[in-house]
Specification:
The complex is a heterodimer of chains A (about 210) and B (about 80). With about 210 residues, chain A is mainly alpha-helical. Chain A folds into two domains: about 90 residues, RNA polymerase sigma factor, region 2, helix turn helix motif (Rna Polymerase Sigma Factor, Chain: A, Orthogonal Bundle); about 100 residues, Arc Repressor Mutant, subunit A. Chain A is built from eight helices and no strands. In chain A, helix 1 crosses helix 2, helix 3 crosses helix 4 and helix 7 packs across helix 8. The radius of gyration of chain A is 19 Å and the shape is elongated. Chain B has about 80 residues and is mainly alpha-helical. Chain B is built from four helices and no strands. The longest helix of chain B has 22 residues. The chains are: A mainly alpha (about 210), B mainly alpha (about 80). At the A-B interface, helix 2, helix 3, helix 5 and helix 8 of A face helix 1, helix 3 and helix 4 of B.
Chain lengths: ~210, ~80
């Protein structure tokens, strides 16, 4: 997304210092991205405990494999791939739910459903406190099937490109696009209940 | 949501939202949502869906989680560090 910028050069310098054993440089990289990696892992695994394991594994592995980091992708994109793999392994280990595999074939013949047609408020999020909003948005994402959820989290929350998302998940670009569309439409549907324009029922809470 | 045009619109919605549609496609989509109130609602609410998620900031990693992370890294990576030197 961003062309080589000063930050990217800074970052490559940090990576090079970390590679030669400079732990302070590595700590800088860790604290730069640990929040995002934790959030990503929590979204995919839906568990604080698993997310913490993923977080630790991701940075341990990234340090151990720093020699393989080519520098032609962003460091962040590179660790996202590690974190996604670790998160999916957690999901697979649980095996409690047949639908947890990201590789599951999605029935693409199924129509993309749009059931709820209700206009939203101009600034729908204004109606809720930050905390409430966080919970509404988090629950909606969590309710998506893993195959859709993972694509949505990478593309629309973590801001990876379609190509980066495809690479991180070992999916084709058309597969990323079609899952993203489904995820977006399903979320839209789930959130409509909270964000639709209030009309006649404006006094309903009384 | 049943016309051929509405189905076509849904398939192209991502391109429009992600700003990857070319000028001609953009224009055709805009014309359709101008004429079809249902599709306008779908477009508008999906756009807002993305906006609310984009506005959601990553919460801080709980302090103890970050402390444990740094501690684990320090413990496990220290020997590597010494070997390198």
């Amino acid at each position: 997304m961003s062309t080589p910028s000063e930050t990217a050069f800074d970052e490559l310098a940090l990576v090079n210092r970390a590679r030669s054993g400079d732990m302070r440089a590595f700590s800088d990289l860790v604290t730069r991205y640990d929040r995002k990696i934790f959030r990503l892992a929590r979204h995919i695994t839906q568990s604080d405990e698993d997310a913490e394991d993923v977080l630790q594994e991701t940075f341990l592995k990234s340090f151990q494999h720093l020699g393989e980091f080519q520098g032609n992708s962003k460091f962040y994109t590179w660790i996202v791939r590690i974190a996604v793999n670790e998160s999916l392994m957690k999901l697979r280990k649980r095996k409690t739910d047949r639908t947890v595999s990201i590789d599951e074939s999605i029935d693409t013949g199924e129509e993309t459903m749009v059931r709820e047609i209700a206009a939203w408020d101009e600034d729908p999020e204004q109606r809720y406190s930050r905390e409430e909003l966080g919970e509404i948005l988090g629950k909606a994402v969590d309710s998506l099937r893993p195959a859709f959820r993972t694509v949505f989290v990478l593309r629309d929350i973590e801001d990876l490109s379609t190509e980066e998302t495809a690479a991180a998940l070992s999916l084709s670009i058309p597969a990323v696009k079609s899952r993203l569309l489904r995820a977006r439409l399903q979320l839209r549907e789930k959130l409509t209940r909270f964000f639709k324009r209030k009309g006649d029922d404006v006094f309903a809470y009384l | 949501m049943h016309t051929y045009k509405c189905k076509w619109f849904l398939e192209e919605l991502n391109e429009y939202l992600d700003d990857t549609a070319d000028a001609e496609l953009r224009q055709r989509i805009e014309q359709h949502i101008h004429e079809c109130p249902n599709c306008w609602v779908v477009f508008d609410s999906t756009k807002k869906t993305l906006a609310v998620y984009k506005g959601m900031e990553a919460q801080n990693v709980p302090a103890d989680v970050e402390q444990r992370l740094l501690k684990v890294l320090q413990q496990k990576l220290k020997p590597n560090h010494d070997e390198i030197r």
